[in-house]
Write a structure and sequence with these properties.
A three-stranded antiparallel beta sheet has the order 1-3-2. The chain is elongated, with a radius of gyration of 25 Å. The protein has two domains: 80 residues, Orthogonal Bundle (Multidrug-efflux Transporter Regulator, Chain: A, Domain 2); 54 residues, no CATH class. 46% of the residues lie in helices and 5% in strands. By secondary structure, it is mainly alpha-helical. The protein binds FE2/S2 (inorganic) cluster.
């Protein structure tokens, strides 16, 4: 870890971070409220960001492109030090995790696509027989139709 403490010239105003990342100032405010980035304040109350915040914002943008929820970005950021740029090792760990997530999503989309193909030309949209409409129908495989409630005795 570096002993270098940021000087005022190392710190960036929010407009500069917005310009360098292509992210709107309002989005930067939002990321700050979520704890994804942080800023110090000038005596006048203006936000100032360390330069490594640009890298964090870039990682957030990558996550957004891949459909990774911000809550999950917050999880991976929780393991990163706030006072430095994510390293190559950090990024490898994050990207491997998100690759696994994309892979699981790809498999789920393939499964749904396969089920939807069975619907093409059918049109029944039936709780009993359509796996797209009723994908977790565990009772459906025994061929007796839905039975959600236990039988009630007339005794
Ligand atoms: S619409 Fe008939 S199986 Fe899905």
């Amino acid at each position: 870890m570096s002993d270098h403490k940021p000087t005022p010239t190392d710190l960036l105003a929010i407009g500069e971070v917005a310009r360098r990342t292509g992210v709107a100032v309002s989005a930067l405010h939002f990321y700050e409220r979520l704890g994804l980035i942080s800023a110090t304040r000038t005596a006048g109350g203006q936000r100032r960001y360390a330069r490594h915040v640009i890298r964090r914002v870039s990682v957030i943008q990558v996550a957004k492109r891949m459909g990774i929820p911000l809550a999950e970005v917050a999880e991976v950021f929780a393991d990163l030090p706030q006072d430095r740029m994510p390293s190559k090792v950090d990024w490898r760990r994050i990207s491997e995790r998100w690759h696994g997530r994309l892979e699981a999503r790809r498999k789920e989309i393939e499964r749904m696509e396969h089920e939807l193909i069975e619907c093409i030309g059918c049109g029944c949209v039936s709780l009993r027989s359509c796996r797209v409409l009723n994908p977790d129908d565990e009772l459906g495989s025994n061929g007796t139709g839905p039975r959600l409630l236990p039988e009630i005795s007339a005794d």
